[in-house]
Every structure is written in structure tokens, then in C-alpha cells.
Design goal:
alpha/beta; five-stranded parallel β-sheet; 10 helices; binds adenosine monophosphate
């Protein structure tokens, strides 16, 4: 099964992707985690991405498409994967479709986590303070200034993917404001239903 979790920064994509990967035996693919690892390791990609990530902007499509296409080719992805934080632009979405089509595969479902904007800042603040409380270093982009840029990038570049995947009959939305376990069971409900509902609706409307 190949899934995408879609939603603004702080929507809970990482938390849900990690738990879902465990429940279903899938691989979680987070481009944010991969890029942070590259920054930490001081690779060429990491050096290119570091300041962009810190400011909350988007790393170039070519870089992230390259990372994902290499990663998807690895054997552990054969059983299926959950993309968390990719695609973030229409160009990335089109590249992903092409990549999967070249392997004779396609995406199964896209799950959108719907959250209120007002909740995002407090979630991001909480993530930073929880990390500090646990003795760690918070993400360099988990602050009010970078969040503004990340939200702008989301609405400008990523939100159009909601229409893109609706038109493909793949979009399903869950209430990301619900408690973590409740969101997880809504996601399980979508997966267990095998993606009926909206898919049927968009096909009936001839959009799919
Ligand atoms: P995330 O952990 O998903 O919030 O990503 C952290 C940061 O990494 C983002 O704010 C971007 O700077 C960068 N990033 C992660 N995934 C992508 C992507 N698919 N396209 C462009 N930039 C990305």
C-alpha cells in the first residue's frame, strides 16, 4: 500500500505516519527527516538545504524528488510506504506519479489531516518545549518566525495538491483536531474501507 499524509506543518503527519507504519508494517518516508539527517551529516544536499529549512522555505523540487526516487527504489519499500512531507508541490506530485507509473504502480490513498490554523502555532511551540524537556535540541524551524514562512509555503505550494488528488479520486480527509488515537482510528477506517467514498464521488463527477 502506498499512501500520502497531507497537511500543514504541525498537523500531526509525522506522529500519525510513524504509528501507522508500525501498525501496518509499512515504511515511513519523511523528506523532512531525510533532509535533517543530511544537514547533520554535512552532505552536499544538507549544505544546500540547511538555511532554506531554517527559514521555513521549501528545498528545491529536484533535490527532494531525487531523494525520494532513490529511497523508494530500496527493497524495504516494496511492501508499501507512507509519504510524510512529500510531495509538497504540484511538480513533486507529478514526478511521483511518473516515478510510480514507471514501476507499474500507483498511489493508493492520500489522507489529508484537517486542522485549524490557530492550533498549529501552539502545537509547534509544544513540540519545541517537549524536545527541550526531554533534553534534546528543538528543530531549527520550530519557532514563530519560521512557522509563518512554512504556513505560507503550505498554502501557496502544497494546498493545491488537495484538488490534484481529489481529481484522481484518491483524497480522504480526517479530523486532525481530534485526539491522536482518534485520528489514528479514523485513518484506519479509511484504509479498511479501501478508499471508497470520495473516490466514488469524484469518479461519478468524471473528475478521476
Ligand atoms: P518537515 O519535517 O516535513 O516539516 O520538513 C521540514 C523542512 O524540510 C520543510 O520546511 C522544508 O524546508 C524541507 N522539506 C521537507 N520536505 C520537503 C519537500 N517535499 N519539498 C521541499 N522542501 C521540503
Amino acid at each position: 500500500m502506498k499512501l500520502i499524509l497531507l497537511g500543514p506543518p504541525g498537523a500531526g503527519k509525522g506522529t500519525q505516519a510513524e504509528a501507522l507504519a508500525r501498525r501496518r508494517g509499512l515504511v515511513q518516508l519523511s523528506t523532512g527527516d531525510m533532509l535533517r539527517a543530511a544537514v547533520k551529516a554535512g552532505t552536499e544536499i544538507g549544505r544546500k538545504a540547511e538555511s532554506i529549512m531554517k527559514s521555513g522555505g521549501l528545498v528545491s523540487d529536484d533535490i527532494v524528488i531525487g531523494i525520494i526516487s532513490d529511497r523508494i527504489a530500496e527493497p524495504d519499500c516494496a511492501r508499501g510506504f507512507i509519504l510524510d512531507g512529500f510531495p509538497r508541490t504540484l511538480k513533486q506530485a507529478a514526478a511521483l506519479d511518473k516515478l510510480l507509473a514507471s514501476k507499474g504502480a500507483g498511489l493508493d490513498l492520500v489522507i489529508e489531516l484537517k486542522v485549524d490554523d490557530e492550533a498549529l502555532a501552539s502545537r509547534i511551540e509544544k513540540r519545541a518545549s517537549d524536545t527541550i524537556a526531554a533534553g534534546g535540541t528543538p528543530r531549527s524551524d520550530d519557532n514563530a518566525e519560521a512557522l509563518k514562512t512554512r504556513l505560507l509555503a503550505y498554502y501557496r505550494e502544497t494546498a493545491p495538491l488537495i484538488g490534484y488528488y481529489f481529481a484522481q479520486g484518491k483524497l480522504h480527509s480526517v479530523d486532525g483536531m481530534a485526539p491522536i488515537d482518534e485520528v489514528a482510528s479514523q485513518i484506519d477506517g479509511v484504509l479498511d474501507a479501501g478508499g471508497s467514498g470520495l473516490e466514488k464521488m469524484s469518479q461519478e463527477q468524471g473528475a478521476g
